[in-house]
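Many introductory courses stop at the sequence. We go one step further.
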Amino acid sequence: MTLKQLQYIVTVADTGNITEAAKKLFIAQPSLTASIHDLEKEYGIAIFLRGNKGVQLTPEGDEFLGYARQVLEQAGMIEERYTGKGKGKQRFCVSAQHYSFAVEAFVELLKEYGGDKYEFHMRETQTYDIIDDVAHLRSEIGILYLNDFNETIIKKTLRDNNLTFTKLFTAKPHVFIGKNSPLAKKRSLTLNDLKPYPRLSYEQGSHNSFYYSEEILSTVDCDKEIIVCDRASLFNMLIGLNGYTICSGVISEELNGPSIVAKPLKVDDRMEIGYILPGNIPPSPLTEKYIDILRKLV
């Protein structure tokens, strides 16, 4: 295995096409194909599936790609440290449930450490995908919550993927509502208060288990339910439909505006919000800085 071969794998995966990757790498297509075959033979795996429409990563290839990216990033840091060559494009990726503090920390990281060239990804995504992203090194860090209901299942999934969970803070359940909602005048809310209104929650895709729900108390019966994929849609419907969502109560008015308010929910529950990391790979300097910013914010 060579660094050049790893770069070949990353480029082919990014383009999805051997011919296009060969052009980007300035090598002949047969040479690129032969180099990839040699690497697959060396490790006894199939990294790509070839088809008429290009190439696709196999499950083994998807895992291998994550390690390849990590090795190339570490090699780049060594090159920069000991040769004094100019800094290349910085890359960083976070996968998180829909928390404004995670976005706020991301913005602060980018402002302070982005530099002249960067490619940063902020993925607000489904719970299972957060775990999968970090397990396969598509993201350096993931952010999600545990509580009494989901803890056993989530922790088992983390162990199965050799991931660790570290708590940032514990939040009592709150409800996000529009500032003009009929519920906004109450100091705190009960589940009975919420019954007449539509409940909003985030789509969890094919892994739509209650254990992977981003909202606690997802098993509580509700007559009116709205499922959304993004935070902007959820906030718009909270305001326009007098809906609600059960959450941590942590919100950034600077990022989300003053139209959403949080009210304490009178239930015996808690949300232990934290981050997940690969268990056998030390965090990158950017990941450590991001965690520092998270801790300061929360």
